[in-house]
Design a protein that fits this description.
By secondary structure, the protein is an alpha+beta fold. Helix content is 29%, strand content 37%. The protein is built from four helices and six strands. A hairpin with a 5-residue loop joins strand 2 and strand 3. The two termini are 29 Å apart.
Length: 145
């Protein structure tokens, strides 16, 4: 399971990530949009996103990809406009272990994993532990924005 959490202007965007045949992901409906300050709504939206997992979606040629699903929800005209001021985290569950993976933007604009922002949970951890930690991270980051 792999999910992404976007924070932009105090709003959290939680798309469903569809898994394509080759192991790539793309954002699809449904998308949850909640205020970072609304703890209960954020908890519910994170739990729903993680429960949906990664439904299979068709593999598309790059030129056939639709515009990113988040643009409509954010009212942004382009992906580069959406990325301005955006923070991003990945939530991954692999072999029974959860990870929260903070992302950073390189000078060339590419977004990559930030090794300084990777949190690895113990194998005994549950999704609720990850959700509570993600809420803390998002709310702290929103206050700093």
């Amino acid at each position: 399971m792999y999910c992404q959490v976007y924070l932009r202007k105090g709003i959290v965007y939680l798309p469903t990530l569809g898994r394509m045949d080759k192991g790539f992901y793309r954002g699809v409906e449904p998308v949850a949009v909640v205020s970072a300050s609304n703890t209960d709504a954020l908890r519910d939206a994170l739990a729903a996103m993680m429960a949906r997992g990664n439904p299979d979606v068709p593999m598309l040629r790059r030129r056939d990809w639709p515009p990113p699903v988040l643009l409509r929800y954010a009212g942004a005209k382009s992906w580069s406009a959406f990325q301005r001021g955006m923070l991003l985290w990945g939530i991954e569950e692999k072999d029974g272990t959860f990870h929260i993976i903070g992302k950073r933007r390189k000078e060339d604009g590419t977004i990559v994993d930030d090794p300084a922002q990777i949190i690895t949970f113990t194998p005994e951890s549950k999704s609720n532990d990850v959700i509570e930690r993600m809420i803390s991270i998002v709310q702290h980051s929103a206050r700093k924005q």
